[in-house]
Structure formats: C-alpha cells, structure tokens
Amino acid sequence: MAEEKINLQPDSFEPLAQTNEQELDSEKIAAPSLTFSQDAWRRLKKNKGAVISLFIILIMVIVSFGSTPFITHSELVKSNPEYANLPAKIPGIDINGFNGKMKVGGEWTDVYKQNGIKDNVHFVLGTDYLGHSLAQRIIYGTKISLTVAIVATLFDLLIGVTYGIVSGWKGGRTDNVMQRIIEIISSIPNLIIVVLMLIVFRPGMTSIILALAISEWTTMARMIRAETLSLKTEEYVLASRTLGQSTGKIAWKHLVPNVSSIIIIQTMYTIPSAIFFEAFLSFIGIGISAPQTSLGVLLNDGQKNFQFLPYQMWYPAIILVILMIAFNLLGDGLRDAFDPRTRR
Amino acid sequence: MKKYLLKRILYMALTLFLVATITFFLMKLMPGTPYSNQEKMTPQQIKIMNQQYGLDKPVWLQYIFYIGGMLHGDMGTSFQFSNQPVSYLISSRIGASAQLGVQAMIFGVFFGIIVGSVAAVYRNTWVDTTATIVSIIGKSVPNFVLAVLLQYYISLKLGWFPIADWGGFEYTILPTIALGVGPLAETARFIRTGMVDVLNSDYIELARAKGLNKFGIIYHHALRNSLIPLVTLIGPYTVALMTGSMVIENIFSIPGIGEQYVKSIQTNDYPTIMGVTMLFCFGLVLIILFTDIIYGIIDPRIRLNGNED
Amino acid sequence: MKLKKFATAGAVMAVSALTLAACGSKSSSDAQSKQVLHWTESSELPSMDLSKATDVVSFDTLNNTMEGLYRLGKDAKIEPGLAKETHVSDDGLTYTFDLRKSKWSNGDDVTAKDFVYSWQRTVDPATSSQYAYLFDGVKNAEAVMNGKMKPSALGVKADGDYKLVVTLDKKLPYFKLLMGFPSFFPQNQKVVEKSGNKYGTTSKDMVYNGPFKLTKWTGSNLSWVAQKNNNYWDKKNVKLDSISFKVNKSNSTSYNLYKTNKLDAASLSSEQAKQLKNDKEFLTRKNASTFYFQYNQTKKEFQNKKIRQALSMAINREQLVNKVLGDGSSVSKGLVSKGLAKNHGKDFADEAYVKSGVEYNKAEAKKLWAEGMKEIGQTHLDINLLSDDSDKAKDTTEFIQSSIESTLGKSVTVHAQNVPFKTRLTRSEQGNFDMVISAWGADFADPISFLDLFTSNNSQNDGEWKNAEYDKLIQASKTTDAGNTDKRWDDLVKAEKILATEQGISPLYQQSTAWMVKSKVKGIIYNSAGVNYNFKNTYIKE
C-alpha cells in the first residue's frame, strides 16, 4: 500500500499567536492538586459497589450501636416464653411468611392464633425459643459480632504493624529471630490456639477477641515487613536517615503512611473473617454466652431448628451475608482505590 | 539445597517441641480431672487412680515422661475410650477427615479456577460482578449453615444423596461441597487477581497480537502463571480444612478426627488432646516445607536458601 | 411408526425399571421382616469392658450383650437372668445364687467363677474401675478398693461351678436391683487375660453371654451391629435378628434419617420436641434424674433461708418445663424423682412432696426477698449462676436468669456461667459458685440414691448445707431401720421433707428425653434408673 502523501503548507510552521502568557506555561497542572488520600477517595467514589457497601456498613453500624440505649441488659434478660417461636408478623402485610403464618406440616397455619396471642402483638422478624424478638436479637447480635471483629482487628493491627515495621526496619539477626517466631506461631493451627485460650480463660467476648488477635496478626506482620523492607531502601527514607531523623519519627512519618493502604485493605478482610470465626466458635459451643448473643450464636441456634422454624436461621444468615459482602466489596474497592494498578 | 533442608527440618523440630510444651502446660491449667465418673468416686479412689495414670507426679515430671514417650512414638492411652491407644484413635479416624479435606480442596480449587478465570476474562462486566458476589457468598455463609441447607434440600427433599453416614463415595459428596465452597471462593479470588495481572503483561499482548484466541491464551499462558502463587495457599488450607471439618463431621455423622478433638477437650482427655494437636501441627509444618520446595521447583526465580524468605 | 415403537420400547423399559426398583424396595422390606432394628446413639461406644465402662452407651450395650444374675424388666421388675434360684439368709447378709447352665458366645461355660473373677477385677484398684463404688456394702469391698486388702478377700465365693455365695457388710435393701446392673455381670477370665490391654476395645476382643453379640465395632467407629446370640440361654424369647446402631450427634440429622426410614428412632432436641409433640410416634422417656439448685452456704447471703426460698419461688417451673424445655421433662415434686420407688402403692415423690419447696409464687418471693435482704443487711446481690454448656443447660440458665431478675427486680443481678460439664464439677467441688444447677441420676431405684447426697459430709454436698436432723434420719435408714421397710421409708420421707422445707437445695425439674420411635417397633423396655434400654424382647411388627 502506498503511503499517503501529506500536503504541507508553509503556514503550518508559523508560531501560534501569543494570546495569553499563562497558557503557555507547560509546567502548569490543570487539575487541582490532590493528596494521596483525596485521590483514593475520588477513585473509590467511582466504584458503585464499594460506595453502596460503605453505606450498608455505616447503616448497620449506626443501627446496631445506636440501639445500645434501647437494648439494655434488662431488656435482653427479659423472656416471654408464651411468645416463643412465633414467625414474622408485620402489621399491614398479608404475605404468607410475614403475616404470622408458618408452614406447619405442609400447611400455612396462623401460629399467633394457634397460641392464642392477641391481635395487636407483632414481631417483625418473629421470636426465638424464649420469646425474644428476633429483630432485637439480630440487631444486638450484629453489634456484638461487629465489636468482636473490630476490636480483634485493632489488636491485630497494633501487634502486626508494630511487629512488621520493627522486624523489617531492624533487619539482620533481629529480623531473623522475629520471622522464626512468626513461623512457629503460624505453624499452630488457629483453632488450637483459640481452643486452648478459651480453655484457660473464661469463655466470653474478651477471650474470643484475645484469641482472634493472637492467632490472626501474623499475616499482617508479614505483609508490613515485606513492605517495610522495600521502603527502607527508598531515597526519601535514606535522605531523612542521613539528615539524622530518629527511627521512631521515620517510622511514623514515612513508613506508616506508606503502608496505610495495606493496613486498611487487610483490615477490611480481617473483619469479616473474624465475624466468621466467631460464628464457628459458637457452633462448637465456646462462643458468646447468654444473655448476650451474636450473629454466630443466632445462626447456630437457628441451624438446629431449621426443619421446623427455618426463619430463625434465614434472617441472621441474610444479615451476616450482607455484612460480609459489604466488607469484602469495600475491601476490594479500597484496594483498587489505593493501588490503581490492580483495577484495569 | 541440602543445607537449606537441614535447617528447615531443624526449625520444624523446634516448632513441634515448642508447641508440645505450650500445649502440655496449657492443658494442665484446664480445670477438672479426666475421669468421667468423678462425681461418684471417693477422694481415695481418685487418689489411687491418679497414681496409676501418673497424674500424682509434679507437672514437670509428667512433662518429661510425656516428651520421652513421644520420642518413642508412644502418645499414651485415651481416658475417654478406655485402653484405646491414642495412636490407634487417631489412625482410625484421620482417614475420613483427610479424604474430605483433600476432596474439598480438589473441588474448591478446580471450580475456583474456572470461576476465577471466567471473571478475569470478562473483568468489569456483569459476569465478573456475579462471580465476585457468588464467591463472597460462598465465603460468607458459615459451612454449618450450608451443610444444613444441603442436607435438608438436596438429601431430604430431593433425595439425591444420602442424608448422613459414611459409606461409599456418594456419602462424601455433600460434605465435600459444604467444605469446599470456602476454598472455591478463595481460589476464585486469587486466580482472578493473578490473572488480571498476567493478562495485562506484555507477553500476553504479544500472544494476542499473534492471533491466539482468548481461551488459548488463558490455557497456555495466563493460567499457568497465576497458578504458582496458589500452591502456597493449598497446603495450609488443606490442613485447616481437616482441623476445621468437625462441624461437617458432626452434621453428616462422619467418623473423623475433628469432632473427636473437640470432644477430647471437653472431657479433659489429655493424651488425645496432645496427640491430635501434635498431629495437626506436624501436618502443617510438613506441608509448609513441601510447598516451599515445590514452589522453588516450579518457579525458578525463587532460590532456596536459608537466608532470605 | 418406527419412532412410536421406539417410544413404546422406552416406556416398557421404564416400567420394568420401575418394577425393578419396586423389587428392590420389596427386598428391603424383606430385610425388615428379618427383624432388624435401626437404632441411633448420640455418642460413640467408648468401652465394652464392664469393669471400666462409665457412660450410658457402654452400659446400654453391655446390658444387651451380657447377662447377669437378673435382668431388669419393665418398671425395674426383677426378671430371671442366670440366677435360677436365690436364697437370702435370715439376717439378710448372705445371698446364695443357684446358676443355670449357660454358655459364652465362644462356647465356654458360664460359671460362678466368672462372677467371682469379674467382681474381684472390678474392685481391684489396679483395674481403676470408676464404678467400683457400687460394690460398697459387699463384704470388704471398701478395704479392697482402698488397697488395704487383696481382691480375693471380697465377699463373693464360688461354691462349685453353679453356686455363687455373696456376703454383705450391711443390709442392702436394693441389692437385687444392683444385680441387674452391668458392673455385676460375669467376665470370662480366659478371654480377659488373653486379650490383655485390648479387652473390650473392639467387638472381637470380647466374649458375650447376653441376648445379642456385638459385631463390626472397631473401638472408635460410628456404627456397630448387635447380632442375635445363639448361645444365649433364653434365645427363644429373643425376636430381633440384629440391631444396627448408628451414631448421630446432630438431632436434626437423626430426625432427617428417621423421616426417610433410615432409622427407627431419633432422639429430639427441645425445639424439635415442641414441634412434634402431637405426632403419634412421639414419646418421652423419663430419666431418674433431677435437676436442682445448690446454694453456696459458706456465703452469708445463702445461709439465709428466706433468700433461698425467694430465689426458688421466683422460678415458674411449669413454664420452664413446658415452654422452654418442652421435651416431656416434668416439674420436680422433690429431690427424689417420680416413679423411682413405691411403698404400699404410693410413690415416694408424692409422699415427700412439700408444696412450698417447689412452688412458683411471685408475691411471696418478693416478700421473702425483701425480708431476707434486710436480715443480711444488703441492698443488691450479684449472683453467679453456674451450669453446664449443653443446649438444654444454656436454655435453662437463660430462663432462670430472666425469671429471677424480672421477679425480684433491680436488687439482684444474675451472671450466667455456662461451662463444660467437667469444669462445672470441679468448680462445684471447690465451692467456686454462688448458685449451681446440678443434676443427679439414680444408679438404682431407691430414694437413698438421691438422699445420701445431702448428708453433711457427702462429697456431693457442694453447697455445704448441714442439718443434724436430716443426717440422723439418713443414718437410721441405713442402720437401725434398714430391715424394716416401712420404718426405713418413713425415715427417708421425713428426711426429704426437711430438705424441702429448709430449701437446702431447690429441685427444679425431672429430666425426660423426647423421642420419635416408629410405631412398628414394639417391646422396647426402658427404665428410668440404672441401665436404660433392654432390647431382649423387642420385635418389629409391620
């Protein structure tokens, strides 16, 4: 194929008219300058899934923690066995499954009527075996599950980040010893750590949190260490070192901000796995104890009665799944926002 | 290589020793005696029995005896199952757990690769989003919930598979699925991330430019490269599946080790607790060592020497 | 046309497949007419060594595969076992049993020596039997157990091959009942010694003389089969060909299996029981075990009788058993379970009933609480309520916590502590509790099995309640009044009344377990105390 002949006229080589001095400033960046976090936030906002997830998480946090003044100890302790095991009944809605009717032996039966319960009694999500409102239990359970997860993750962060930075920064023999310790700890199956911890301490929220923190921090420490190792050789770190900056300050000013993305992303993944693990502990009977409850406990109770009272498992399961999806999507979103290379 | 191996084996031994020590002393902090009928026994009888089981000796002496026994391969006798050596208890029940763990892993990895690859190829489309959400659901439904659902709908309502029990292969299908969905989700996620990276690299561009079709590229180039990091995930995950399968064992009435482990903890069956803990730990360190070696073989970029990780 | 033919052929094939399938199901119903019972257990079979067995599954299996002097029939009625005739001496301290000729499953003769060997083996401290305490009362048993005498000094002798002579230290009014418990069954010395450490660890390392013999048990597996024993002396009355046992730890699973006819019985959880209570195959089995509160009476607040009474009256036991447990458990009338023992046709539990001991009375509870709190000079109490961590125990503590707090108001806070069974025992023993929910199951059908617990120095009296009058009555029932049934009965009734009025403990409920059992299964014998199941006369009628 022959090349097209370009027809050039002499006036193509004329300089442009200088209309505005500033326009020619080639060094000028047109867009407003953004800090790293502003940039990340901008990218995050573009990710619909992540934004929705963020909202869902916020709503769940607000509702569950906002319920604290309403769902008090005495409210939790109160039981009404005469209202036990009622299905959902929402005023004004007449769809089977939400109108107080439940399939009993293959037939839709009005359980409220059967038990002689007054017409004005409504339980939006039904009740459990002691006549507690399931909706109230789920809200409270979400709060406990979130608390366990968040606090455990914070511990995880504190230990993991410090350990990782120290190990990576010091290097040499210290690093070697610290890495061996991690190796040993991660050679012990998680479950064994948790079970042994719970044997020694009293079962309950504190020991679950501690157990989770102890068994989960190694991943974080490893990642932070790897990142620190590479950051250590960066010019700006070297520069501030040469300038005589103290180690602590370097760690705080340079290292922590640079590993913050890893921290946030890792946190987003640790929270759901902590919720999950707590549910598992409840199944084997070493979870949260009454009158407190958690999503795991609710699921485990529901699971046992699934043949007859399926709603007792479905509702907490749905909430748990939504929460987990939200955290995971937000985690993905944050990862992409902080590290744009991964999103293509 | 030899030096590296030696060093690793030394660390393994050290790890196992430390775990044995920690477990032993923690276990001794557990309240209660191992006798199941303790409430009806007189203090005198308990004393005589403690003497027989060596529980009257100071803890450090018991510890030395225990470690000594372990070195000779003697893990003691179970309290719960009278006269049953712990080694027999473990060997008779590890089979089912191991089979389930491995099957679940194969199931998870196989379908995980498929889901992950499809998501990566059609990335940022609805296919990708669906795959992501499905795998998150898989990861976020506790396996006991899944097991109950499978048992109720697939076995009881549809009658496709046996409800519970342990017999032939058909008995393992539902437990495998219940257990394998977690690794499936994890693998899918891993593969997707890895593959997106690979698909954007220059040599894939080249392959594409050469006119290879989409799935040819995936099979010949992308998959292989994104599989490498998966190797590190599989080993430890399999051990975790075996330890964590007690829930599934309970629901599907499977004679596995996980359930036995929890029970031995609840009944203070010291020798069994120790035996199973050590077994799991041994499995994990061994698998970590193997994966590191395999990793070195399939990915020549990683050198096996003791100084760098 | 051709196509149509093809379709017909297909249909024919489908039909024949259906018939085949029908045949298949027919042959399985043939297997049913072969008299097979499909039973479920909730945990493994840990041991078949009757000297070392400690749990329900082991004892039940032993009861069906071994034979002792007697076999307990319906309502704990003593039915003939190996003892053909029994002579009791006038002082009630010597029992002579004439044994019938019978064989072990390996063809050996079952002789009086097998009994002697078995008993001596159990009490020998070297065997470390946890049930040796049952021999207390047999001559020298205690001395042997404590290592002060040789096992051969035990008061049991073989007089020839078929005569067994037992001498007692003191009168045991329930001695014959005990003989129906597996710890008193014979053991074949040859087999025990040949198997050594493996004795009773698999179905092969065992020998049987009962209605069934065990097969396919490897010591740790989840299924085993009891097959009819053709060497059993009374085999003509054994109708089942075999019993297949499967362990299912999850109640949902066993119920699902039951619904698909894979199991003939399923034990139910509380919630399942509540849903199924109107089913015609639903039944509840009473256990001779009572759940009760113990108060830590080393603490000032619980030494106060009014406080104890108030706490007891705050609990609506009716609601607890019907709405929370729902498994057929019933409100206790007192410590001794109902249906355990009768005298002149009157049940002990009815005789010893004290209304205020177990009633629910909100107003009275509040009043007593206020008075009690005033007496001890406190305005608020924090109570640690200790209990097990089983599902039912958790439900119970949650309900009790709620009842106490809502009845007695803000002046009390209950902290529920659900811990594993063994931890609960240890903490009870150490007195590390305020209130504990304890349970006691009778080993044999006599009130003393319960009432012995709360004498001042009994190791089970964790709350350390002390009452001199009570101790005196229990002592009298064992010594001066031991030979006089009526007087002994009165002593025990009086004792329990004292316990109830004083609220030394507060009985809560008598446990039951809810079951679904296929209606075609007939003749299962269930006893609330000691060994529960006897399948000797069970059969299946379609």
TrEMBL record, chain A:
Annotated PROSITE patterns: ABC_TM1
Pfam family, one: BPD_transp_1
Alphabetized UniProt keyword annotations: Cell membrane, Membrane, Peptide transport, Protein transport, Transmembrane, Transmembrane helix, Transport
SUPFAM superfamilies: MetI-like (SSF161098)
InterPro entries reported for this sequence: BP-dependent_transpt_permease, MetI-like, MetI-like_sf, OppC_N
Membrane topology: Multi-pass membrane protein
Main location: membrane
PANTHER family (UniProt xref): OLIGOPEPTIDE TRANSPORT SYSTEM PERMEASE PROTEIN AMID, OLIGOPEPTIDE TRANSPORT SYSTEM PERMEASE PROTEIN APPC
Name of the protein described by the UniProt record: Peptide ABC transporter permease
Gene name of the record: oppC_1
Automatic annotation (TrEMBL), chain B:
Keyword Hydrolase assigned: no
PROSITE patterns hit by this protein: ABC_TM1
Matches recorded under SUPFAM superfamilies: MetI-like (SSF161098)
Bilayer-crossing regions: 9-27, 100-121, 133-154, 227-252, 272-298
UniProtKB keywords: Cell membrane, Membrane, Transmembrane, Transmembrane helix, Transport
Protein's cellular compartments: Cell membrane
Ranges of residues in domain ABC transmembrane type-1: 94-295
Membrane topology reported for the UniProt record: Multi-pass membrane protein
Entry-linked Pfam families: BPD_transp_1, BPD_transp_1_N
InterPro entries: BPD_transp_1_N, MetI-like, MetI-like_sf
NCBIfam families: Opp3B
UniProt family annotation: Belongs to the binding-protein-dependent transport system permease family.
Protein name per UniProt: Peptide ABC transporter permease
Taxonomic placement: Bacteria, Bacillati, Bacillota, Bacilli, Lactobacillales
Gene name linked to the record: oppB_1
Automatic annotation (TrEMBL), chain C:
Primary subcellular site in the record, as a coarse category: other
UniProt keyword terms in alphabetical order: Signal, Transport
Highest taxon listed in the record's lineage: Bacteria
Matches recorded under SUPFAM superfamilies: Periplasmic binding protein-like II
Domain Solute-binding protein family intervals: 77-461
Keyword Cell inner membrane: no
Pfam families xref list: SBP_bac_5 (PF00496)
Localization in the cell: Cell envelope
Signal peptide: 1-21
Protein's UniProt keywords contain Isomerase: no
Family: Belongs to the bacterial solute-binding protein 5 family.
Protein name: Peptide ABC transporter substrate-binding protein
Species, as recorded: Ligilactobacillus pabuli
